Give the backbone structure.
Amino acid sequence: MSETRRISGIRWTRERAAFLAAGCLLAGIAGGWMIHGSRLEASAAVSVAVPTPSAAAPQPSEPAQMKEMADAQAAPLLARLKSDPGNPDLLTNVGNLYYDAQQYETAVDYYARALKGRPADASVRTDMGTAFWYMGNPDRAIEEFNKALIYVPNNSNTLFNLGLVKWKGKQDAASATAAWKKLLSADPNYEQKDQVKKMLAEVQQHEADRLSGKPN
């Protein structure tokens, strides 16, 4: 992906694969199981419930605290951007910092600026789409995933996330199935292939139950 992140293809789409949020999209949680365009992140099993944090455990995930940390980490990069405002790598790195801090609107802004200089960067575009998902905008997420696939048609991370949003965001089981089958066909050694197979089985069972009139 860009100098920055994290891996390639799907590794944590932002190399973030299943995303850092706890929980799992498959369990119906709007945020927790996506792959950062460049990395892979996650890993909870399909249909795993979001664990309840311990009341005694410190919670460093307060939005204000996370933003503060991201601002501090981004400061040196922002200083460099003053003399090189269109640098896609710097812009992506800043976007990644804010994405990791769950400051998705800010992340989207930097990703969009990075893509102006490097529009074919499928990993960054996938990360931006995933940020839109977390912002509650599945349509825009799908739009960005589809744009990413124009440049890299078999991008595993993009297909992984596209399937999730099609299923959980649009209740479109057929499109989700098509995306995941394409992923497995194009990348049979995909690191998360077992997870993808589980999701396919769950979608197929859900559709079979629906057609037979069984309650979900």
Q: What stands out?
A: Confidence is low (pLDDT under 50) at residues 1-32, 39-59. The chain has eight helices and two strands. Residues 12-48+122-212 form a domain with the Serine Threonine Protein Phosphatase 5, Tetratricopeptide repeat fold (CATH 1.25.40.10). The first helix runs from residue 63 to 83.
